[in-house]
Amino acid sequence: MKPVGTLLRVALILAVTLTSVAVRADDASRWFLWEQANARMAAARTPDDFLAAARAYHELVNDGVRNGPLFFNLGTALLLAGDSENAAVALRRAERYAGSTPEIRTNLRQALALQSGQTDAELPWDYLLFFWHHDAPLPIRAQAALGGWLLLWVALLLRLWSHPGAGRLRAFANAGLLFGVLTFSIFLASVTLSWLQEQADDRGWSERVFAGKTIPEAAP
Q1: What SS3 class is residue 197?
Q2: Alpha helices in 18-83 (DSSP H)
Q3: How many CB atoms neighbour CB 154 within 10 A?
Q4: Using the 8-state DSSP alphabet, how is residue 119 labeled?
Q5: One digit per residue, pLDDT tens: the chain, 220 residues?
Q6: What does the buried/exposed string (b/e) look like for 176-199 if buried means 16 or more CB atoms within 10 Å of the residue's CB?
């Protein structure tokens, strides 16, 4: 239990520090809820305390707030409350908005480990194979897809306008066309998948029941 407890205390510190950009300061009601949730998180000592903080963060999600720090803090609060299943879902939502930061990865691994009663767990294989999908936030991937689309058309126009004898220029245009197609296709697929996942989570999020659970003992 000691290694798990240490990691959970580290997760708490990281969660409370990631609070500067979660809610706009000019939104008074949401800002109050955010500060209240953070205060509960900072003062929490027991699983029930962390569950109360998670429910406070959950109010902001139900109110339409969507960003990485909010889902990170929610996932961390659920993790410390022992609800590793919902914690993993919240942390994956944090990843979509903030990218796969070291803090998110640490807490996600801990959530997966708690589900199996281990001291640590590896991230799924797709985190290595599709690193760009997990590492980059959704807005960045959308911009990359747009950049690929623009490059595709610029290269295509350059190829059409270039003289057949201009070998280097046409080779450059062909390379740009290929790179644009690949970039657009890869990041469009990534953005589409994340959008579909986010829509699915949004539809079912308000129905999730955050219940306190006993944190399992780690296997020796």
Answers
A1: helix
A2: 28-43, 47-62, 68-81
A3: 14
A4: S
A5: 444 444 454 454 444 444 444 555 457 788 888 988 999 999 999 999 999 999 999 989 988 899 999 999 999 999 999 898 999 999 999 999 999 999 999 999 999 998 877 777 888 888 888 988 999 999 999 999 999 999 999 988 887 876 666 677 778 888 888 999 999 999 999 999 999 999 999 888 877 766 545 444 434 4
A6: bbeebbebbebbbebbeebeeebe
Inter-CA distances, 28 with 23, 32, 34, 48, Å: 9, 6, 10, 27
Place of tokens 């890869």: 186
Contact between residue 111 and residue 87 where contact means Cβ atoms under 8 Å apart: yes
The domain spans of the chain are 2-126, 129-199
By the 8 A CB rule, do 108 and 91 touch? Answer: yes
Fold of the CATH domain 2-126:
1.25.40
